[in-house]
């Protein structure tokens, strides 16, 4: 009996080739755009290395000018992720494993809608609503925990502090982390979960033994994406933060470090000449920090997938 060979339709092969070409072109275009941004920031930022103190806010060199901004950027982003990550993971678990379906979907939709709110709205909320209310709490922190360098005061009555800015950033990063973790948790194999429950595990033990190990790499990626959002946020921080360009761990004082993005937004409209190059150089530093953070996130996630055998 002769075997009959079936040939694929020519149109299908042509469609695959066109899709592959378009996908490859899109990937190359993104890389070209990223390289173009890097080249522009490098070429325009290099003159800042020769800038005089007058263009550097009185600093002797560009390193002394950028370092407080880097410190403020990392501090605000770290505090934001420290608050947002546990809350986001908890919300994702509630939506995927605890809340009834008729309640989980509306909660998920509301969390997703937070990502669509413009940053300027978050800034207005932080400066008009959140700041004044947190200001009263800062006085209590100073009175009771003032022996710690984080709360030594004097407390800001307006609430325009690095801690308030970090709370706003945490709210902005929350929908990103929650949405990704929710999808990862919902993809955990049902057989693994049912096997754990059949062996007598409680729901929390089942989550700890099956859901968390399965979604570890995805959780790390989600947190890193949220960190990238916090690192690059501009308007909300510029509106909320009362920045003075210092390096301090005091979280409740009106004397606060600034962030790179906020400093660029506030200083660029009036900048000219070498001052523009100084701001662009600080943007280059932020670009490198964001690139390193995302690269480390992808590396950790990839290693987690290898260990898990996926």
From TrEMBL:
InterPro entries assigned: MetI-like, MetI-like_sf, Phosphate_PstC, Phosphate_Transport_Permease
Domain of life assignment: Bacteria
Span of domain ABC transmembrane type-1: 70-297
Keyword Membrane: yes
Topology of this chain in the membrane: Multi-pass membrane protein
Coiled-coil regions listed in the entry: none
Localisation: Cell membrane
Primary localization class, coarse: membrane
UniProt keyword terms in alphabetical order: Cell membrane, Membrane, Phosphate transport, Transmembrane, Transmembrane helix, Transport
A Pfam family the protein falls into: BPD_transp_1
Free-text function comment from the UniProt entry: Part of the binding-protein-dependent transport system for phosphate; probably responsible for the translocation of the substrate across the membrane.
Family from the record: Belongs to the binding-protein-dependent transport system permease family. CysTW subfamily.
Protein name in the entry: Phosphate transport system permease protein
Species name: Nocardioides flavus
């Amino acid at each position: 009996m002769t075997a009959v060979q079936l040939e694929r339709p020519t149109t299908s092969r042509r469609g695959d080739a066109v899709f592959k070409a378009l996908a490859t072109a899109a990937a190359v275009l993104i890389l070209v755009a990223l390289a173009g941004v890097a080249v522009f920031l490098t070429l325009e930022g290099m003159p800042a290395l020769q800038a005089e103190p007058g263009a550097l806010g009185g600093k002797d060199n560009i390193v002394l000018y950028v370092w407080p901004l880097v410190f403020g950027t990392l501090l605000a982003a770290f505090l934001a992720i420290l608050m947002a990550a546990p809350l986001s993971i908890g919300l994702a678990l509630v939506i995927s494993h605890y809340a009834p379906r008729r309640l989980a979907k509306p909660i998920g939709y509301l969390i997703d809608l937070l990502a669509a709110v413009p940053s300027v709205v978050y800034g207005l909320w932080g400066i008009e609503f959140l700041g004044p209310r947190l200001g009263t709490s800062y006085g209590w922190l100073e009175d009771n925990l003032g022996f710690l360098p984080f709360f030594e005061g004097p407390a800001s009555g307006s609430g325009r502090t690095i801690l308030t800015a970090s709370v706003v950033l945490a709210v902005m990063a929350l929908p990103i982390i929650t949405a990704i973790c929710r999808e990862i948790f919902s993809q955990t194999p049902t057989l693994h979960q049912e096997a754990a429950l059949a062996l007598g595990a409680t729901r929390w033990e089942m989550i700890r033994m099956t859901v968390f190990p399965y979604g570890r790499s995805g959780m790390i990626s989600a947190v890193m994406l949220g960190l990238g959002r916090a690192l690059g946020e501009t308007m909300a921080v510029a509106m909320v933060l009362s920045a003075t360009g210092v390096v301090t761990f005091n979280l409740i004082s009106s004397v606060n470090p600034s962030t790179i993005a906020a400093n660029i937004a506030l200083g660029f409209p009036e900048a000219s000449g070498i001052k523009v190059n100084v701001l662009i150089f600080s943007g280059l530093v932020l670009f490198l920090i964001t690139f390193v953070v995302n690269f480390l996130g992808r590396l950790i996630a990839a290693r987690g997938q290898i260990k898990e055998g996926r």
